[in-house]
Each structure stands twice: as structure tokens, then as C-alpha cells.
Prior knowledge:
By secondary structure, the chain is mainly alpha-helical. The protein folds into 2 domains: 4-130, no CATH class; 135-207, no CATH class. It is 75% helix and 2% strand. It has a two-stranded antiparallel sheet. Helix 1 crosses helix 4 and helix 7 packs parallel to helix 9 (194-210). The longest helix is centred in the first third of the chain and has 24 residues, at 41-64. The chain starts with a strand and ends with a helix.
Amino acid sequence: MPDLGVQFINPLAGNHPVSSDPREVAASAAAGERSWREFPYYEARFGERGRRFGHSDSAWLSLASRHGAEHLRREVLWLGEVLSARGMPQWMLERHLEFLHDALVEAVPERRVAYEKLLSAAKMLRERRLWKLGEDDFRALAAAFAARVGPEWSARLPHMGGLLAAAVADERNGVTRAVASLEEWAADPARFPLHWVDAVHDTIANARERAR
């Protein structure tokens, strides 16, 4: 069966091919939903349109995993930079690749070897992130943000401190709009209370001080 055009999943996503294997399509959607649950920021900022793009990007990555490891790494780096510049730090893609690997291996176990390349790509993103901002600093910044905004707001948008820190790491890795595209939404006083807005600005400043 020939591979499908992405319009089959998301009419807004252009004209690139995605997997025609219904097991991979279903696994891609499942991985997208897992990412959606992991990061409520997706829904808060991008709504249903973001969900559709999550599913179509997953199906594209599923197909890309059948190519060589270097090809997949190039595609992941390209996608990661595009997403980060639009307000989705590459940490989110890193986690999504792990979720996608798990869902695909469960759905299509005979392609396990091909899907291992997704974990390799996730590791690449993690190494790039931690090269600019170490794990201890990353965790400390995330915890400090959560403490400042309090449990109610942390529950509404968990992982926001980590996203801000990850955006700074992306910025240090050359994604020019990585911080600005997230900050302009996360520090909007029409959307968030003052103590949240202050925590956003301070977390970014602290991350920049700690980043290589």
C-alpha cells in the first residue's frame, strides 16, 4: 500500500507523505494524546489545531523512522527548530519521540529496530539541551518556578518552569525566537496573574545566567 498524504490526517499540514499502515497511524495518534496529557500547555495555547498537528507530525516521524538514522536526525533537528521558534521548546519533541517509540513498538513490534532510531533522536535532543543547561540546573529552575507560582497555577500548567528553561537551552543552540515565542504568551498579564508573569521573566533571566 502506498504511503498517504498528510492531508488524510490533517488538511492544514501541507503535502508531505505519512505512513499508510493503520497500526502506525493509530500509534501516532496515541503518542500525540500522551504528549497532550504530559504538557497541558499544548491545549492551553494551541487548542484543537495543535492536536491535529501533533497527530500528523507523529505519523510523519513514524514514516521517517524507516530511513537511516542520519536522515531521521536531520528531520528531527529541522522539526525541533521550527516548533521551538513557534513556542514549543525542543524538550517537548524529545519527550514526544520517546512516547512515539513506545506506542509504535507496542503496535508494530516487528519494526522495533527501525523505531529504535526515534529513541536515538530523542537522546540527541536531550544531549543538546543538557550541553547548554545541565540537568541539575534544569530541575532547579523548574522547581523554583513551581514554588513561586504556587500549587494552583502549577496544577493548571505543569512543567512550565521546565519549558522556560528548555527554551533558553534552545536559544543557546541557535533558535533565535525560542524564548521570545514562549515568553510573549507565558508572560501576558491579560492571561496570567502578576506573580506568574514575574516568575516567567525571572526564570528566563536565571536560566540565561546558568546556561553555557
